[in-house]
Amino acid sequence: MSALLEIDDVVKHFRIGPPLRKKTFPAVKGVSLRIEAGTSYGLVGESGSGKTTVARMVAHLTTPTSGRIRFDGRDVTGLRGRRLREFRQSVQMVFQDPYGALNPRMTVLELISEPWEIHGLHSRADRRRRATTLLDQVGLAASALERKPVEFSGGQRQRIMIARALALEPRLIVADEPVSALDVSVQAQVLNLMKDLQDELGLSYLFISHDLSVVEFVCDRIGVMLLGELVEEGAREELYRSPRTQYTRTLLDAIPSLPTATLAGNETGAE
Amino acid sequence: MIWYLFQRLLALLPTVLVPLVLVFLLIRLAPGDPASIILGDQATQQQIAALRHQMGLDQSPIVQFGRFLSDMATLQLGQSSFLQQPVVDVIPSYAAVTIEISVLALVWALVIGIGIGAIAAFRRRHPEGRVAKALGILGISVPNYFLALVLIIVFAVAVRWFAVGGYVPPAAGLLPHLQSLMLPSLALGLGEVGFVSRITRGSLLDVIGEPFVVTAKSLGLRTSRITTTHIARLAALPLLTVIGLLAASLISGSVVIENIFGIPGIGQLMFNAVSNRDYSLIQGIVLFSGTAIIVVNLVVDILYAVVDPRVQYGAHAR
Amino acid sequence: MTTDTLALSVQNLSVTVRRPGGRYPAVRGVDFTLARSSTLGLVGESGSGKSLTALAVAGLLADNLVPAGSARFHGEELIGMPEARRRALSGSRIGFVFQEPMSALHPVLPIGVQLTEGLRAHTSLTRAQRHGRAQELLELVGLTKTRDILGNRIGQLSGGMRQRVMIAMAISCEPDLLIADEPTTALDVTLQKQVIELLGGLQERLGLSLLLITHDLGVVAQTCENVAVMYAGEIVERGRTDQIMREPGHVYTRALLDASPRIGDARRRLPSIATAAPWLRDTRELAGASGPAALREVSPQHWVREQDEREDAA
Question: How many domains does chain B have?
């Protein structure tokens, strides 16, 4: 059975530098991975590893220099025009900066309805109803619809971003460092939310992060990137218990560890 | 830096083309036949036809433009119909006077404007700062000819420190020469003080609020050191840009000021040329002014890159 | 412990924000001590007041933020200190490392100039001597190719290098006290480790007392002997790090520890607390507000604030 998302030896080169003296910078040097439907794949790496570039290629914000991307068995590399627009309904993106990614002059209702506006879906009344449902799903009250992003905290804005990403009922959400800018307690709320949504809606995630502890919490499979290459890949338990490459071990060692006291929530997992 | 210079010069080409095209069209689009306008009412048909042929008005526009460009490049600017002298001979002496006044005016504008702007920024919570801020607003609201008249009334008529008008050439004595330039340059410069002070104030406030100023404080640096080394450099950047803009303001402002004070500068010359429909002269003056402004802005661009090297790298700067 | 062995002794420190709508108490009743050559972690989330506390101690608050209370540096009172004295201490005996080096360092001045500003202000070294010292400082923080770096602007360096330059600047005059405000937050995890090790190494070599501000409990656990936890402008718990991590006394501390995901964690969900920065929604006025509840010593050197309904975990 084909996976939901397959990227096959994808390469991305950027041309950078002053005019007449441009150089080619290989941001991604041949990455392949699979994401099965209903699962989460975590792509970790440090700045410059190329993980964000991979995310952007999957979300079709940039096209690969070479390689193929397959979604649900279909080749979607380099889609354009109407087909691209249709494809966008299947894959949506959530960004890192909750303060920059939401237009401060739009109300929450406008922000969430924008995808429907662009794709010509649903009547006005319908949009309001659906937006209210989405807000409820992400844990925000309907009264938020008329307010503007400035009235919300970072965690709440992130939830609004998630609600907007869900508007088109995508099957895959590409989340680029969605909790890195948030405080620990708020981070916990958003991570819980993402997991719940996955259970409820059968979503799949491509989760980009530099934080291995966060990724371990959310993802089933993890890929480690270094300088444009995928150096190690594996199921969650394997990778964390017995990492195979030196780099992964370095990353794991570098995490300042907390002493393990008895942790709440260990018993049933219900909150 | 060489590359940056090259880029700047390359960007100049289209900029220079604009006034050239406008001047070219000026004569040819004005109502009436250019040749007869140039020659005036007394011209005969033959003279008009001869001039038309000489000016190449009977040829295609592209050829005309080509001839025009080569004429401009070789400074063949024709003859002033009312002064009966080649334009190239007429312009320099008048231009020198205007340049002198404009440079002085620039100095007034910068010294007084930056002073007021700095007070408005550094003493913003004190009465003097508030007064300075108000002066800036007042400055941009008051036209420079009004200031000129006020200055004349106060300094020339009432106190009699300076003459009411007229120009004394340097040959007649340095001190009288400078005295004759004092009021006009002040009037021209003060007209820009409001603008300069507001830009200074805004730019200083921007830089003062930056985190690296707190870092400088954390190192225990004296305020004077922070201001001169850390703040001034960055705050000066918008001012540099402003100087480029001022070049244009001062030249256009000089038309009025020279008229009020009776100074024989380019402004006066232009005024008369327009009144007399002296097209060749108008053309020459427009060219001169355009070139002057472009040169000033090129110098500003270079200075900017010296103060802030990041601009040399364009979009790749960080 | 007499005050002389304490690098920093803070008592009843408060910072009030003067806004057009009134005054707001951003930091209230903060007490803590920092022993010589040791490390104290000041931990809290956004809006907890930890950065403001650090800035108040260093005398670097903006004009609309008013400090009150006491902060003694080797016995000398810092709050309300005359500006000339503050300038004499800043950079020479108290160093400050800021959070975001890209904005905390001058964008255009060469690194060499910025590094030697402190030396220029506080020592009588000649230009050549300062230049030499600048190179030493860069080597001290683990950078090579020092001559190139000295001529560069900060935009030409990588993030990790910038942070090291920031640290080099702060220690340029060998201060006694180093205050580091979130020094690792903007960095990748391997760089974080390097910076933490660098700070630890510098502390040993120079005998620094270190006040480390962070939201990362893991960093605190690794580097600080003592910790003070802040919430909503107040200290809710303080004491020895190992003890507090093992047996947190205050609800908030416990909730923070619980909410942090960690490697090997088998939990399905992370317990969370509703802690949006209180000063975004709070309308507490200074007048009429009673002081913060007192800290109770639950065990030797372990202080926990009296708890009331306000801090209930969600």
Answer: 2
Range of the domain at B56: 19-74
Per residue in A134-153, pLDDT tens?
999 898 888 889 999 988 88
> B31, B46, B74 — which closes off a domain?
B74
CA distance linking residue B276 with residue B84, whole number of Å: 13
Question: Do the domain assignments include residue C281?
Answer: yes
With a CB-CB cutoff of 8 Å, which residues 228-267 of chain B face chain C? Answer: 229-230, 233-234
Tell me, yes or no, whether B158 lies in a domain: yes
Q: Are residues B183 and B285 in the same domain?
A: yes
Indicate the SS3 state at residue A260: coil
Interface test with A, best of C163, C188, C251, C252 (most A CBs within 10 A): C188
Q: Say if residue B292 is in the same domain as residue B147.
A: yes
Q: Using CA atoms, how far apart are residues A263 and C270, in angstroms rounded to an integer?
A: 10
Chains A and C form CB pairs within 8 A to the count of 135
Q: Predicted ipTM?
A: 0.86
Contact B212 C103 (CB under 8 A): yes
On chain B, the residues whose CB falls within 8 A of the CB of A16 are 316
| B294 in C contact zone (CB under 8 Å) | no
Same-domain status, B276 and B171: yes
Partners of residue A252 in chain C, C-beta under 8 Å: 263
User: Contacts of residue C98 in chain B, CB cutoff 8 Å?
Assistant: 211, 214-215, 218
pTM exceeds 0.95 for this model? no
Which one is the CATH code of A5-253: 3.30.450.40, 3.40.190.10, 3.30.365.10, 3.40.50.300?
3.40.50.300
Contact residues, chain A to chain B, C-beta under 8 Å: 16-18
Number of domains in chain C: 1
What is the pLDDT at residue B120? 93
The residue range of the domain holding C299 is 3-93+206-311
The beta-carbon neighbor of C221 closest among A240, A251, A258 is A258
Q: How far is C92 from chain A (nearest CA, A)?
A: 31
Interval B186-241: pLDDT, tens = 888 888 899 999 999 999 999 998 999 999 999 999 999 999 999 999 999 999 99
Does C261 contact A210 at a Cβ distance shorter than 8 Å? no
The answer to whether residue C268 is domain-embedded is yes
